[in-house]
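Dear support,

I submitted the protein below through the web form. The confirmation email said the job was done, but the results page showed an empty box. After a refresh the structure appeared. I'm attaching both so you can tell me whether what I see now is the final result or a partial one.
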Amino acid sequence: MSACRVRTPHKIRSLLKVTGLGAGVFSAYSVWRGDEKFYNNVFMPIVRLIPPETAHDLAVLGVKWKLFRPAHQDTERLRTQFLGMTFSNPIGIAAGFDKHGEAVQGLQLIGFGFVEIGSVTPEPQPGNARPRIFRLNEDKAIVNRYGFNSEGHGVVYDRLRESREQEHPEQRVMLGVNLGKNKLSLDAIADYVQGVKRFGTLADYLVINVSSPNTPGLRTLQSKNTLQTLLTEVLKARASLPANEQRPILLKLAPDLSEEDLREIVEVVRVKACAVDGLIVSNTTIDRPPTLRSNNAGQLGGLSGPPLKQRSTAMIAKVYKLTEGKIPIIGVGGIFTGEDAFEKIEAGASAVQLYTSFIFHGPPVVPKIKRELERLLEANGYANVQAAVGKGVDKYL
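What the results page shows now:
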């Protein structure tokens, strides 16, 4: 009898070890392969117990180490031409996730068709005080007031150069670099000019970000006269570079612009000296819809996620109409499903970007959106993404 009593606890411990090991292996495999149910029911609820900025930092680290590899093969229907380049699919990661260019290759492995890093400022700066990012779980939204925390041009440039050197020629990442200005800069235009000159050798496109709500005075750069001066100088700087370093330049707009402001911006970018190659619509909003339920809704900063979706889609349609479809648009704001992406494409976007849905649902959301988007393109008779761009613009005005 005593021998039985001795062996039984040992057997239980062994069973627990084997069970625990099995659960660990299963969990690790589910995370690596991007099991959607596992993420939504187990992994992401655990992640939401972690403070938001800590969770963000860990997510970037995990992607950098290439721990996440959801399985999905891009099809010809998703392949698209944009900014004179070919993208394997039109789904990109928006600036704000990989601020310092640490996880570019890992983001491509997850399935993004292009990766935008930043915002990057000329000099290193810490950004705003913590806490500076807040989950609105009931609304599946986020409020952030990071304030262009950046390691600076020098560090990010060296990191991206090393990443480029490690790339396989057949797996080259389509890379955008989002440029910002330093908070205490005395010459904002010089900050953007410096970014254009620095990153032309590494990026596939560059973004002039004058629409973040978290840097004092930044959005005033969207005013007509100031914007005209800024874009003229930025494009002059690009023209001064060798031909192989002259990259497409896009302007990122705020969703809180008035109708008049929007018309004036379109007037500016249609002038030859200010003719950027594309527009990103839109950044986060300072508005707070009355439908928000979360206690964090009152936090200062930019709101992203589903509460921004309709506003950004309508703005895409307005910009597409105002530009007569002649200036390519990247659509951003509240994309959680393939239908959300499809709506922005029909409204006039040539490509789209995710941020908040990636934070709430993790890597599996990328292949999910691509699958759903492909089915919608086929069901609506579109041979490819380009065929759908702007075809439903009037529905979203």
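Response: this is the final, complete result; the empty box was a page-load delay. Residues 9-49 form one domain.
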